[in-house]
Design brief:
Blueprint (H helix, E strand, L loop, with lengths): L7 E9 L2 E10 L6 E5 L12 H7 L4 E5 L16 H18 L5 E5 L2 H6 L2 H4 L5 E5 L6 H6 L7 H8 L3 H9 L2 H12 L8 H11 L4 H9 L10 H8 L5 E6 L4 H14 L2 E5 L5 H4 L1 H11 L5
Parallel strand pairs: 3-4, 3-5, 5-6, 6-7, 7-8
Antiparallel strand pairs: 1-2, 2-4
Helix pairs in contact: 1-14, 6-7, 6-10, 11-12
Length: 300
């Protein structure tokens, strides 16, 4: 386990789903600098390392904290039922931990599907945030988005991938380099130059870590979705007790882009557009960092 953002590693033991799980956090920057909490997007290849280009531009001007969600990256990946409530509990634990270790109120920057986790704590926690920044926000997993079917229709898929023998085999097929390349090219990154054999292999190794299939299939099948329609996240956004900034992905998949635009038009205090797809915080992290340094409240 090594730092991904050029910072120092911390571990947090959290009681989730009736068991103690270890979450891995990384902190970079001066302790007295304004605090920014960076939430990685939820995906088959989710990790705090997505924020590397962003963190490199920020340098020590901000105190940056990111972490791997339970089931992903360097955090524990047990065979449990992953859902939106579990992820909210994980984020609640991280926020509580930061309250005890850092006096500053954070700016929370959430990417992709992690937006729904942050919005799920709107009434409970947003009064303690300087600002909430949603980057290429989504609320619905890939299969429900593509098919229009509710996430409950994919319970069979989650059970199948969780099963012994057939589950690992099926997951291995679906994390082949060919399929990962297709997914990254169509939905995550714009530049073909990013899709080098070495980069695809790196993403495959991340996706195939022991136990990774359980949280991954939950994401893909909609098991991490908080609800079944957009009404919920619009209501949650209106309940926020802090300013809301939305960063749209100019080249996001059409269905996802439509949802982003509805949220931005109906609930955001500030709106901007950056090139990229659902992984814009990774591919265009340097541009995003420079923009947020100028636009976040109080230059926090």
């Amino acid at each position: 386990m090594t730092p991904q953002l050029g910072g120092t590693l911390e571990t947090l033991q959290v009681d989730l789903a009736g068991r103690q799980l270890r979450l891995v956090l990384e902190r970079r920057g001066h302790a007295a600098a304004p605090l920014w909490l960076l939430l990685p997007a939820l995906s088959t290849v989710s990790s705090r390392g997505e924020w590397k280009a962003f963190a490199n531009v920020m340098g020590d001007r901000r105190q940056l904290v990111s972490f791997d969600w339970p089931g992903f990256g360097d955090s524990d990946r047990p065979a449990i039922a992953y859902d939106a409530a579990l992820l909210r509990s994980a984020l609640r634990a991280v926020l509580s931990y930061l309250r005890t270790t850092t006096p500053q109120l954070p700016i929370v920057v959430a990417a992709g599907h992690s937006v729904s986790v942050a919005l799920g704590l709107a009434t409970e926690w947003s009064g303690l945030w300087q600002e909430l920044v949603l980057v290429a926000p989504t609320w619905r997993g890939p299969l429900p988005t593509m098919t229009g079917l509710p996430q409950q229709q994919f319970n069979w898929l989650r059970s199948l991938v969780a099963a012994p023998w057939i589950g690992p085999a099926l997951y291995r097929l679906n994390t082949s380099r060919m399929l990962l390349r297709l997914m990254l090219r169509r939905h995550v990154w714009v530049a073909p130059a990013l899709l080098t054999p070495a980069r695809i292999r790196e993403q495959q190794l991340l996706a195939r870590r022991p136990g990774a299939r359980f949280a991954s299939v939950a994401f893909v099948s909609g098991g991490l979705d908080p609800v079944g329609d957009r009404t919920w996240w619009l209501q949650q956004a209106r309940l926020l007790k802090c300013p809301l900034q939305v960063v749209l992905a100019a080249e996001a998949p059409p269905r996802s882009k439509k949802e982003m635009e509805v949220l931005a038009w109906e609930a955001a205090d500030q709106l901007s557009v950056i090139p990229g797809r659902l992984g814009l915080h990774q591919e265009f992290g340097a541009l995003l960092a420079r923009q947020l340094l100028e636009s976040c409240v109080s230059a926090g």
